Amino acid sequence: MSVLQSRPALRWLVPTGAALAIIGGGAAVGTFASAAEPNLPERSAAQLLVDLQTAHLDGLSGTVIKRADLGLPSLPGIGGRGSAELTSLVSGTHTLRVWHAGPDQTRVALLGTLGETDVIRNGKDVWIWDSQANKAQHTTLDESGPTGRPDHLPTTPQEAAEQALAAVDPSTEVRVGRSASVAGRDVYELVLEPRDATSLVGQITIAIDAVEHVPLRFQVVPQGTSKPAFEVAFTRVDFERPDPAQFAFNPPPGAVVTEGTRPEGRPALPTGVEQPTVVGSGWTSVLAAKVPQLAGTTNAETDGAEANLLRGLLGGLPEVNGEWGSGRLVTGKLFTALLTDDGKVFVGAVKPERLYEVAQSNR
Amino acid sequence: MSAVDAPRLPEASVRSGRPGRARFFRSELRFFRSELKLVFGRRRNQAGMAALAAVPVIIAIAVRVTEGPTETGQDPGFFSAISGNGFFVALAALGAELGLFLPIAVAAISGDSVAGEANLGTLRYLLTVPVGRTRLLAVKYGAVVVFSATVTLLVAAVGLAAGLLLFGGGPVTLLSGAQVSLAEGLLRLLGVCAYLTVGLCALGAVGLFVSTLTEQPMGATIATTMLSVTSFVLDSIPQLDWLHPYLLTHYWSAFVELLRDPVALDALRPGLLSALAYGVVFLTAAWARFGGRDVSN
């Protein structure tokens, strides 16, 4: 104390030390967690795929973080942190909590800053609960009916992995990456790499629990980077069978309950729009559609607020042209879209050159 | 200025010699009590607390008056649940005041703690008697902690009283759609208050540090308030998401985790750790600054 009294400046060592210790400690924990490469017995990619398919999961609960950084221009009202709406899942960072006790008992809760959306399946009953709207939607499933999932965005690593594996075909190189640690558990990493160089997807990695054979992390890494543009990962996982009470849902009094009818088929397309077609296959398939309304909106031919808004949106996009014609290009990290001036739209997880190629052959 | 602003001499410590342990604690307690009396006895602090307590009453009355089916798709936080259960007035009020009112109150007390004494010229007197500077800071911060807890509980209690009076109580619907008894709801509300108090105490630590930098209590208060507001603003800019986990106020809204079913206590941990980190760094910084500072007023 006497030293501190005679040289008060020395006191500053304490807060500085504390700050450094906290920052350094935090950084060290993060570094060790990501650098730790557990020593696991070797396993081939085929073995891992079989593990995945034969995994017998008694029950699971945990917290899932979903990050999407697709390089989209930020649209008002879509995505972002803190929103508890299911449609917001397309971009931003979200936290979900999942419970799973067999195929007919699952619950996914999308946590918002001040709300929560739950999708609960218990036997034949599917409930979608939206706390902010105070609405509950109930659907009864047929024997063989699909789940009442409201959209096709993967919400758990399992679903994400299944969707990715369905896309595996000779166009893909499948190998085993380095072992890692996810949510405190040792995992194998299955790496899928498109062989086609025009694909924007660099690789897809699926981290598979070494003991339970359950996917714990799913990442899509764009070509030319190592930072995932899309990631679904457990941050906490527990393989105990969750309490059956988690799956029982009774709409609270005062909530608006709707008996849901599952939307039959696809949503109707606006008039004048043809059913889109898929050109090519595998990683480089391109979706082609005709949207006559788009034609001319980039010029000042049409009037009205809608056209003005559209013109404003499109006007900011880079103009491109070539033998295939001219149009505007939207580029994200994992997809490219081409809007031609004659009202055609081409979208794919491919580089622009591939879209020009398709546009040329679709003239 | 009222009588409580006069220099307070912790008389027990004036006595020379080595005081016994019990006597030491007694003198400590007396010092702490006199500090609390100063904080809670000031007219301006009482007026501030009255303003904080008015917000839940206004919310309850406003919802009561405009009662009816409100077609709001998006609820900023618990407002739509109020008409069904008065319990939610407390939560709506806490949520509404968390952004500005509660931080201002804590910033005012902590910013005033040292700078206020310096400004009035009483700091000199406090230090002429052998009150250790560390001890003085500890007592000042202790009062900030008590004040943070008091205002949080005050808002919740007034909200609860107003809500139950105007809307009645009943089982509480959690965010997950499950219902719990009112008693468990109250327990969770208490947990929310405790969690928010921890966050406000971290802000209080920053305020105490700022207060040792200046002799202008208003300056310290405004600087601390600005810091909290800036933190909220930065937290709402999605492009800065790499910065968000380090912001003082980032985890405050995690109090809603206590209103889910089941409660994931590990979701509260980052907020508590962040508050602890801020507390440690800024309290030691306040100690370093105050210990080495020349006190002329």
Automatic annotation (TrEMBL), chain A:
InterPro entries: LolA/LolB/LppX (IPR029046), Sporulation_related (IPR052944). It comes from the Bacteria. SUPFAM superfamilies: Prokaryotic lipoproteins and lipoprotein localization factors (SSF89392). Residues 137-156 are annotated as: Disordered. Signal peptide: none annotated. This is MucB/RseB N-terminal domain-containing protein.
UniProtKB/TrEMBL annotation, chain B:
The keyword Membrane applies. The chain crosses the membrane at residues 47-66, 86-109, 143-167, 187-210, 271-290. It holds the Pfam family ABC2_membrane_4. Keywords: Membrane, Transmembrane, Transmembrane helix. It comes from the Bacteria. This is ABC transporter permease. The lineage of its organism: Bacteria, Bacillati, Actinomycetota, Actinomycetes, Micromonosporales.
